[in-house]
Amino acid sequence: MDPMLTTIAIFVIITGVAFSGYYALTAKAPVTRRLEEIAGGELVNAQRKPEVSRGPVKSVLMALAPYGFGGSDASLADTLSFAGLRGPNTLLLVVGARTLISVGPALFILVSGLVGGKPLAPTLIRAVLFWIVLHFIVTQQLKSRAKRRIASITRGMPDSLDLMVVCLEAGLGLNATIARVGDERSTMNDALGQEFSQVSAEMRGGRSREEALRALGARNGCDDLKALAGLIIQSDRLGASMAQTLRSHADLLRTKRRQRAEEAARKLPVKMLLPLALFILPTLFVMTAGPAMLMLREFMVTMSHR
Length: 306
What we know:
This protein is mostly helical. It has helices spanning 3-26, 30-40, 42-53, 56-64, 74-82, 90-115, 120-169, 174-186, 191-204, 209-218, 223-238, 242-305. 84% of the residues lie in helices and 0% in strands.
């Protein structure tokens, strides 16, 4: 039999056994299910509705989540929140996908190496290294997405505050201003506008403005947004002019944005040093000194013959 087909068959069998063991261990007894159906009634049916609407891919990923490394880490939940991934089963789906992406190829390398008769120790080391690298890549992609979203919120804050100032000076209240800015900015696929829309929905649902604003700063990981939430809460308590406060804060954020741009521009020569030394300077050296070196070589050859 072809070694590749044997490897694939062993991989499928091991995966099937793992899933069968998982469902066998987590399945409830028939008596327990019957009692829940009798006593639970509508509650049991309501709990089963999301499982019916869940697709097979999501079911597989959520089944793999308990076997994932770092699935219960609070930092991963914070990273997903900062990246804007806040569904009810998002953590399980991400952990399951990361487990499948990292463990699947590593297991394939291990099984193919054992079937091919390769030594166990090098094959195991390669599989573990492959798993570590893929696990690290997926985690870094999540962190990179979170950083990009935080940067997007930071860049859009001055413009959103200017719009809030205009709404406040036009006579709208603070709650109506937040709702208006959220509606206007969310249509532009702006992360900050979507957050303001969520704050407005929470306040309409009965949550106090202070709690909604504190949750706004906590779930996004943006320091400027936390400072803005604290400033609005403090100004509301003291009865200060909200329009003047937001205008001053918008000027401060615009100054900080300009300073960040200047800092990035000053870092550019240092960042260009490595590619300049590795790729550009050797080419210039070959182009300028190459003909002279060839002429010197020919001259040395001629002198040696004489």
